[in-house]
Amino acid sequence: AIAIIHYDMMSTRQRLSEIPTPAFIVNRHAFRENCELVRTSAYANGIHRLRPHIKTHKTREGCLIQAGIGNDGGDGAPAPASASVIGFVVSTLPELSMVTYMACQHQCRPFSDILYGIPICRSKLSAIHN
């Protein structure tokens, strides 16, 4: 199992060397700022819609932050002059399952617009159908 620990929630007495591994450690503030920078830079360069990949973070929280939605990502509305996240790119069945779950939970874009970003083999089709 992978421990998901948010950097800004860690005890100041806990050292990185004390965290069980493997661990996914996120500086939530920096991640939020970077995602907002991507959305505003894209808009400034004529790209008004984005579809980020979730390959690196593979988390619900990361999707919310990338989209700028809810408690993890902001107030739910893109910042002025900011590109809208219209969907997500996934490349594994667990990623697809997670974003599909979020689509059922949130019942809105960007979670209902999912692109499976790699060719899919026949053996995985039945898993997607179920």
Q: How would you describe this protein?
A:
The chain has 130 residues and is α/β, with parallel strands linked by helices. Helix content is 39%, strand content 14%. It contains 5 helices and 6 strands; from the N terminus they run E-E-H-E-H-H-E-E-H-E-H. Strands 1-2 form a two-stranded parallel ribbon. Strand 5, helix 4 and strand 6 (114-116) form a beta-alpha-beta unit. Helix 1 (28-44) runs parallel beside helix 2. The protein is globular. The chain starts with a strand and ends with a helix.
Secondary-structure map with pairings?
Elements: E1 3-6, E2 23-26, H1 28-44, E3 49-50, H2 60-67, H3 70-73, E4 84-85, E5 88-90, H4 93-106, E6 114-116, H5 122-129
Parallel strand pairs: 1-2, 3-4, 5-6
Shape: globular
Q: What are the secondary-structure elements, in order, as H or E?
A: EEHEHHEEHEH
> What is the total tally of β strands?
6
The biggest beta sheet is recorded as: 2 strands, parallel
> What class do helices, strands and sheet pairing give?
alpha/beta
Helix count from the secondary structure assignment? 5
Measure the end-to-end span.
25 Å
Strand content: 5-15%
Radius of gyration: 16 Å
Strand order of the largest sheet: 1-2
Average of pLDDT: 82
